[in-house]
Design goal:
Blueprint lengths: L3 E8 L3 H12 L4 E5 L15 H8 L3 H5 L4 E3 L1 E6 L2 E6 L11 E3 L2 H15 L2 E4 L1 E8 L5 E7 L4 E11 L6 H6 L2 E2 L7 E8 L7 H4 L2 E6 L2 E7 L4 E8 L1 H4 L6 H8 L7 H4 L9 E3 L5 E2 L3 E2 L2 E3 L14 H20 L6 H25 L1 H7 L5 H11 L9 H4 L1 H19 L1
Helix pairs in contact: 1-4, 1-10, 2-10, 10-11, 11-15, 12-15
The structure holds flavin-adenine dinucleotide (FAD).
Flavin-adenine dinucleotide (FAD) binds next to α1, β2, β8 and α10.
Length: 414
């Protein structure tokens, strides 16, 4: 096969790659998307945040998603023992979307990619990137292998690496570094939710907290199936024996709230385990490339921030590339890495404080403080760049200080 020349090569057709491709294509920039799998394909990451609706809307991908009838997510419920902490996205500090979806990603991602193809984006499925050479001026030569074993090269002025867990450029350029998040692992699967209760109880997304390190997600889909998954220390995830289906089923005994609903149901595919899933990189960009979505950084699933960061970073990077291709100078350090890191840092604090137990102290303290709740709710909706929110601006101290005050109050009353 002969070489292909494009302005921008995008590696991966997940939400990050699709948002980047939709934006660049709308600007008349020549884009090619290389995707190693055949779609629809499974990927985890099923609970979205309202903030990502802004991104899909801006690049013209919202209507195709609306037409799918995915389950609406208008908040999130956290349970611990008998205490319930309900966040309602209509009651949040920052203006913005009040709802989003909980989605089977195979269908969701396939809807996105089919829509960009309809818009005219060139997407090659089952074409895997195997090597990338970037010259000093930023132009690159990418080696591609097709499913049939053919190989060819793509010459590009810029690469967006949206390869998710494939982590193409971090691997090839040696950009990986240890994550700042404490290590956790996960085991998850999908069931036909045949004992789903009527009404909101059947469809609400829930995080059932077993202890400081361990929790179960329950994400019901509009197709009648539900995603369930445990997160915990690796020893907990590995504590049962047998196949992954047997292990996930056995772990359900720890959830007083959900074991009757989900125990002994058949899984729709063999459940999957991911060990120590958090990832980080030494830099988010370089001459001629940008890392977006999971190929850059992945924190933790507890606040469902993965897809939103994937689309936020994709849109940001593609806008900067469009400027650069028009001859404008771009300060990537500040305009890209600095901006994305600001949001990542807010979520990183919340994830860390979740596992220290401080955030759980806030969530499950009674009576609730409505002002604090609205501010935290805006963070959980993904609005982590709004510095009018003290729980964004002072994220390093706000959670810790509040938890400390609650604990002191508790000690005094004991
Ligand atoms: P992906 O969606 O992973 O897409 C990357 C694409 O690149 C894939 O299609 C892949 O086939 C392709 N690719 C890889 N290598 C190559 C190659 N060499 N050549 C060509 N193509 C390639 N996020 C949430 O928002 N909500 C959640 O509830 C949530 N839950 C999670 C639970 C767990 C246990 C984990 C580990 C993660 C969770 N996430 C969640 C994170 C979420 O999975 C990711 O953040 C999200 O999928 C990132 O999207 P992306 O577009 O960056 O990558």
């Amino acid at each position: 096969m002969s070489d292909i020349n494009v302005d921008v090569l995008i590696i991966g057709a997940g939400p990050s790659g699709c948002v980047a491709a939709a934006y660049l294509h709308s600007q008349g920039i020549r884009v090619k998307v290389l995707e190693k799998s055949k779609f629809p394909r499974f990927v985890i990451g099923e609970s979205l945040l309202p903030r990502c609706m802004d991104h899909f809307e801006e690049v013209g991908l919202l209507d195709c998603l609306k037409a799918q009838g995915f389950e609406v997510k208008s908040g999130a419920r956290f349970l611990r023992d008998d205490i319930v902490c309900n966040f309602d996205f209509s009651k949040k500090h920052t203006d913005g979307w009040n709802w989003t979806w909980q989605v089977p990603r195979a269908d969701f991602d396939n809807t996105l990619v089919q829509e960009i193809i309809k818009k005219g984006v060139d997407v090659a499925f089952e074409h895997e990137v195997t090597d990338v050479v970037i010259a000093d001026d930023g132009t690159s030569k990418t080696s591609v292998k097709t499913k049939d074993g053919d190989t060819y090269f793509v010459n590009a002025n810029f690469i967006i690496d949206s390869s998710g867990y494939g982590r193409v450029l971090p691997r090839l350029l040696g950009l990986d570094k240890p994550s700042q998040i404490p290590e956790h692992s996960s085991i998850f699967g999908h069931v036909k939710d045949v004992r789903r209760p009527e009404g909101e109880e059947g469809t609400i997304i829930t995080f059932d907290v077993l202890d400081k390190d361990t929790w179960l997600w329950v994400i019901p889909f509009s197709n009648g199936n539900t995603s369930i998954g445990f997160v915990g220390k690796h020893e907990f995830i590995e504590s049962e024996s047998g196949t992954t289906a047997q292990r996930l089923n056995a772990l359900l005994k720890h959830s007083k709230y959900y074991r009757d609903r989900f125990q002994d149901l058949d899984y729709l595919f063999e459940p999957i385990t991911i060990k120590n899933y958090s990832k980080a990189v030494t830099k988010f960009y370089g001459k001629g490339f940008a890392l977006t979505g999971n190929s850059a950084e992945f924190l933790d699933p507890v606040f469902s921030s993965g897809v939103t960061f994937a689309t936020e970073s994709a849109l940001r990077a593609s806008k900067l590339i469009a400027k650069e291709l028009k001859g404008e100078t771009v300060d990537w350090k500040e305009a890209y890495e600095g901006y994305i890191k600001k949001g990542v840092d807010v979520f990183a604090t919340y994830v860390k404080e979740w596992y220290t137990g401080n955030l759980q102290t806030l969530f499950f303290h009674r009576p609730e403080n409505p002002d604090v709740k609205r501010q935290i709710c805006a963070v959980l909706a993904g609005y982590v760049w709004d510095e009018t929110n003290p729980f964004v601006k002072k994220h390093n101290r706000a959670v810790k200080t509040m938890a400390h005050l609650i604990n002191m109050e508790k000690e005094k009353s004991e």
